[in-house]
Amino acid sequence: MESVAEQVPMYIGGLAVPAHDGAVLRTFEPATRRHLADVPSGGPEDVRRAVAAAREAFDEGPWPRMPARERARLLRAAAERLAGEAAEFARLEVRDNGATLRKARGADVPGAAAAFEWSAWWAEHVPEREAGGGGSYVLWRPAGVVAAIVPWNLPLLLAAWRIAPAIAAGNTCVIKPASFASLSVLRLVRLLHECGLPPGVVNVVTGPGAVAGESLVRAPGVDLVAFTGSDETGEAVRQGAASAGTSTRLDLGGKSPNLVLADADLAQAVTGVTWGAFLHNGQVCMAGTRAVVHAAVHDEFVRLLVERVGRLRLGDPLDEATDLGPLVSRSQARTARRFTELGLSQGAQLACGGGSPAAGELPEGLDPAAYFRPTVLTSVGERDAVAQEEIFGPVLSVIRAADDEEAVRIANGTRYRLSAGVWSADPARARAVAERLRADRVWVNDYRLVDLELPGRAGRGASAVWDRLTNELDSYRRRHTVHGGGGEEEGRPAGPPTPYALLGG
Ligand code: NDP
User: What are residue 24's phi and psi, to 5 degrees?
Assistant: First the structure.
């Protein structure tokens, strides 16, 4: 295999640096297995330096102290640069994690630019000071040094949604991208520095999660760990951060259901369920990987679904006509196969898919072992592994339900609480079902159009997903209450008698 890889540095204290011991991680293009780049394999010493740089930038640097509108100016410049370099960022994401060009161009890069644009708006409009009664007031202060750890499925988008609100609120941060896909995050951090971000405000350390990630979670000097990833790692992060006395914000996995009721428009439901389950090969936290279908329409729904899924085009992710590219790695395709086989061994039926394409079925140069056909399993039992575990691959489990009551019970029967869809021609019936689902976001006759003005994080179960915009910002801020110091300029009447609590007897 010919190597055309470049060496990409990480950023600590505004400087482009290798790992202090020179170690590197090799990054491969999933579609072709070509060696794409080498990134630093950071360890505890790199993390220590990055946290020290972020700490210094927070404690002594200009960023947390500058007026919010100045921070907003830099965030807008970043949004403009991202939009201007959209084509390059999109191609990089495609080559690094196997996203299709259509998705990278249509969602990932614009979504990342929007994170900076909107965070700039909040920085200017969300008050940093609120008046209380009797001259008291509350200051909203940045949390401090934020350690952000992101997964490989949407590297640029998720990094932008961690960095932008955090720095808009005046924090500094250290970000650790996933080992499979870190190039777009490294390029984003380079872009921020080119826009004039002061040194140390955003630092990036690449390297294995078990080394760089764990050191970061436990590092003294970090005030908040914002982790996005699997439940299992999330639990390790929760414990590691707790041992260091650091608070966490965890955005974890999902096993979301789509409920197809007896009166659903089946053509519409099939389209929604198909894209809900198979967008980005199901490598999305909110993927609707369970279809809970009323018995009266089950067989017809499955027939239409299999026909629709059969028309999805696997191919070169850089080709605009491709619906599904490779998974992020051969190992992720093996995970999809392992779960499919487990499902079949527990009694499920294979309706379509079930394996990688044969050699010769894909355009020349693509690696079939990194691909997995979109797979539909029927006759799945609600307690089967494929109905309970997040596979993070293109495997959809169809579960039959006798009525709405049973559909709700099945839908609520996993440990996840991320999102859900309800398909019905009757708005009242759909609402009655939607309101009983234990999910932070529920769609009716749609899947995935997120209204960011509405809350999406209830903190229940093992999952969480993007929240209302202002809540996003608030998760990187802390209240600082000053009793009685504001005086008349606070502009609020003393109000009802204050319910004082006497502390300390
Ligand atoms: P992982 O949990 O395996 O990894 C996530 C990140 O954590 C990576 O950067 C990883 O580094 C790092 N990491 C691994 N081990 C540790 C450790 N011990 N301490 C600290 N950090 C560590 O998740 P995946 O990358 O496989 O991503 C898929 C998961 O992310 C799915 O469960 C998905 O549902 C979830 N997700 C949730 C979202 C949400 O908003 N709720 C959004 C997107 C994804 P390395 O890559 O080097 O191992």
Answer: -130, 155
d(CA 482, CA 484): 6
> To 5 degrees, how large is the angle CA 54–CA 60–CA 63?
70
CA–centroid distance, residue 398 to ligand 1 (Å): 27
- 474 confidence band (pLDDT: 50, 70, 90): confident
Would you say domain 10-19+35-251 falls under CATH 3.30.1330.60? no
Distance between CA atoms of residues 300 and 118, nearest Å: 43
pLDDT at position 487, please? Answer: 54
For 333-354, write each residue's pLDDT tens digit.
999 999 999 999 999 999 999 9
Q: Please give the CATH architecture assigned to the domain spanning 257-444.
A: 3-Layer(aba) Sandwich (3.40)
DSSP annotation of 260? E
- Residue 144 CA: distances (Å) to CA of 62, 191, 469: 13, 22, 20
Name the burial class of residue 359, with classes exposed (0-12), middle (13-18) and buried (19+) by CB atoms within 10 angstroms of its CB: exposed
Domain borders along the chain are 10-19+35-251, 257-444
Interval between CA 421 and ligand 1 midpoint (Å): 25
Mean pLDDT of 262-268: 97
Sign of CA dihedral 231, 236, 237, 241: positive
Rounded CA-CA distance 425/427 in Å is: 6
- Residue 505's pLDDT is what? 38
pLDDT digits 0-9 by tens, 416-427: 988 999 999 999
pLDDT band at 455, cuts 50/70/90? low
- Residue 40 three-state SS: strand
How many angstroms separate the alpha carbon of residue 250 from the centre of ligand 1? 10
Query: By alpha-carbon position, which residue is closest to atom 16 of ligand 1?
Result: 209
Give the distance between the most distant pair of CA atoms in the chain.
79
Please tell me the distance from the alpha carbon of residue 276 to that of residue 280, in angstroms, as a whole number.
10
* Residue 25 beta carbon below 6 angstroms from any ligand 1 atom: no
Alpha-carbon distance of 264 to 340, in angstroms, equals 28
The answer to whether 155 and 90 have CB atoms below 8 angstroms apart is no
